[in-house]
Amino acid sequence: MNKDVFNGVMPALMTPCKADRTPDYDALVKKGHEMIAAGMSAVVYCGSMGDWPLLTDEERMEGVERLVKAGIPVVVGTGAINTKSAVAHAAHAQKVGAAGLMVIPRVLSRGTVIEAQRNHFKAILEAAPDVPAIIYNSPVYGFATRADLFFNLRSEHPNLIGFKEFGGDADLRYAAENITSKDDEVLLMVGVDTAVFHGFVNCGAVGAITGIGTALPKEVLLLANLSRMAAKGNAEARVRAKELEEAFSVLASFDEGPELVLFFKYLLVLNGEEEYRLHFNETDELNDAQRHYCEQQYSLFKAWFADWSKQGGVIAQCL
């Protein structure tokens, strides 16, 4: 079982849609190739960023299969309202040769019941025993996976090899103290764009799943590289990583809100990627003030980065 794919930065791909509001799989595959060419270790599809609640199971599976057939390493999201659907996505991921699974908790029905979540996780892991999997811990899903449940599952399912933490600094600290520090074979991935430095430097993360990286791949990969160097004690890298993270803190903070897909798609439009202008629900759009603010922050960051990156030193080493 190859878990090397998790030792890197992965963008959570959004699902572009055509004029008729159906998935644009050609544009999805194009974006996947661009992300790998930029230096990402894999792509994630279809998590929250991919709008999984708005797609049918068949649409999600087709997106996964198209990416895999294109030679793109894919970590598949298993978000679902019922366990049967989640299991189907896991089994399909193994069938088509996906690189990994992102195991998402059961939502809505019995979502806070530990035993219900244990059985949900078990069913997913059993459906794809040959695919390395990480549990996605997020307050958005209303359930916190703690160490006792994680290791109970891992004792029965060796394909459970890691933990993706979306909950922020305190939750990353908990995962580092109580999960990954207990077993050196367990990997920790940063799951929120505002906590990359903290995750790598203070919590021993080996990788990150990013939203802002779909729009700013070079800059996010630079932040990860600087953070890795800082985690080894490089003082200059520590300073530069914190400067960079602070500079795009507003853009990264879109990852923490309910309109993250709307904001990140708009950033891609600002990059010139018109295939991301539309959303599956026609009424899902940023208002004029939000778009203006996004434009201001994007322009400010781009101007700052162009000047800041001229300093050389450890920045040039990590670019």
Would you kindly provide a written description of the structure presented here, covering whatever features stand out?
The chain is α/β, with parallel strands linked by helices. It contains 13 helices and 8 strands. The chain has helices spanning 25-38, 57-69, 83-96, 114-127, 147-156, 169-180, 196-203, 217-231, 235-247, 249-253, 260-270, 288-308, 314-318; strands spanning 9-11, 43-44, 74-77, 100-103, 133-137, 160-165, 187-190, 207-210. The protein has an 8-stranded parallel sheet. Strand 3, helix 3 and strand 4 form a beta-alpha-beta unit. Helix 6 (169-180) runs parallel beside helix 7 and helix 7 packs parallel to helix 8. It is globular and about 50 Å long. The chain starts with 8 loop residues before the first strand and ends with a helix. The relative contact order is 0.11. The mean pLDDT is 95.
What are the secondary-structure elements, in order, as H or E?
EHEHEHEHEHEHEHEHHHHHH
Widest sheet: strand ordering? 1-8-7-6-5-4-3-2
How much of the sequence lies in strands comes to: 5-15%
Q: Which word captures the global form?
A: globular
Largest sheet: 8 strands, parallel
Helix content range = 40-55%
- Identify low-pLDDT runs: none
Q: How many distinct beta strands?
A: 8
> Helical segment tally?
13
- SS-based class: alpha/beta
Instruction: Kindly provide the radius of gyration, computed on alpha-carbon positions and rounded to a whole number of angstroms.
Output: 19 Å
Overall residue-averaged pLDDT value: 95
